[in-house]
Structures are given as structure tokens and as C-alpha cells.
Amino acid sequence: MGPMLRPPTKKGRTPARSWISSAAGLVVKHIMGLGHEHIAFVNFAKPEYLAVNERERGWREAMQQHGVEVDPAWGVHADITVDSGYDDIPMAA
Prior knowledge:
By secondary structure, this protein is mostly helical. It is 44% helix and 6% strand. The protein is built from three helices and two strands; from the N terminus they run αβαβα. The protein has a two-stranded parallel sheet.
């Protein structure tokens, strides 16, 4: 099993943005470790939500840390349905 991130606890409160963006970064690191370089990002909702922005921030930062220039077409905001995620990715068609 790979690395795990724990959500914040009352004692050692970790800001949500810290562990959410870190989790996205760990996903990118894992996928890069499997040999992939062009990693798309499909967010579950529109960017009005903190978690949505933090996941995308973690993805973008991790991609940059690995020296990959992010193509704007690789990041999409879907709605909560599986179909919308598939439909919103240009390369999935």
C-alpha cells in the first residue's frame, strides 16, 4: 500500500488546503512513477469549492516539480456525474 495522508484532527489541525493539495501531488507522483508523463486532471465540480481548487493546485504543482508543462486542455471541471467527466476530456473521445 502506498503513502497515506490523514485528514486533520482536532489537536494537530492541518489546514484542509494542505492535505488536499498534498494528496493530489502524491497521486501525480505515483502515476509518474509508473512511467506516465501526460496526466490529465478531471475535477468533480466547478472551481467555486475550496477542495476543487486545492486538488487542482496539487496536481499543477506536482506536474511542475516533475518538469512537465501543463497543457490547459489537460485540466477540466466536470459536474458530479461520471458521464460528465468522460465527456469533458477531449482526449477521451
